[in-house]
Amino acid sequence: MMHAMLQSHYTDTLIEAGCDEAGRGCLAGPVFAAAVILPRDFKNEILTDSKQLSEKQRNALRPIIETHAVAWAVASVDAETIDEINILNASILAMHLAVSKLAKLPQLLIIDGNRFKPYRDIPHQCIVKGDEKYLSIAAASVLAKTYRDEFMHNLHEEYPLYNWRSNKGYPSKHHRDVIAKHGITPYHRRSFHVKGL
User: Fold this and answer.
1) Closest listed residue to residue 6, CA positions, set 99, 86, 112
2) Residue 169: which region, alpha, beta or left (left: phi > 0; alpha: psi -120 to 50)?
3) Which end of the chain is more exposed for a tag (fewer CB within 10 A), N or C?
């Protein structure tokens, strides 16, 4: 499915970092976030919100983003911290951590969604469905998603019963059934109310 290419930048002059997260709605595993600064002339016909892409497309886009980005970084916040500070705050913290790891300092953060807390003195703009509008946010969504999926794939080896290789920690029927029958792991978020959790 082809779509109109996303916009390359939000402002004409500032160095922008697009930020997005992956794993907010999961029962297990960390929440991941990425921050990406793309060159102004970056173009990609396929890049959009990672949820609209196939796993194969996301995995193909990841090295393209990493190679062409002016700067990029990925960070995560674990399940224990999610339980302590809640998933929204953990998502924002993960984005802050990703921004702090960027090799170049952005002058503006463009954030997917409608909630964020200021990071240092860098101005920010929240954009609902930003990952469907701006290339840098879409790039961040792809990096956050692919790094998180990889992490859950590796965790699967430790706890194969929960089939994280397939469900990536999201609340699939199989995942919920296994929790109901066998309980939870140290990687599960205890603050998420599911039968057995």
Assistant:
1) 112
2) left
3) N
In a domain, 67, yes or no: yes
Q: Which residues contact 120 (CB under 8 A, 6 or more apart)?
A: none
Amino acid at 166: S
Distance CA(143)–CA(195), nearest Å, equals: 31
Q: Which residues of the chain have pLDDT under 50?
A: 1, 195-197
Name the pTM for this structure: 0.95
CA neighbor of 191 nearest in space, from 37, 87, 45: 87
* pLDDT recorded at residue 192: 79
- CATH, residue 59: 3.30.420.10
**DSSP category for residue 161:** G
**195, part of any domain:** no
In the three-class reduction of DSSP (H, G, I as helix; E, B as strand; rest coil), residue 29 is classed as coil
Residue 193's pLDDT is 63
pLDDT of res. 194 = 55
Q: Where are the beta strands (DSSP E) in the chain?
A: 16-22, 31-37, 71-77, 108-112, 124-127
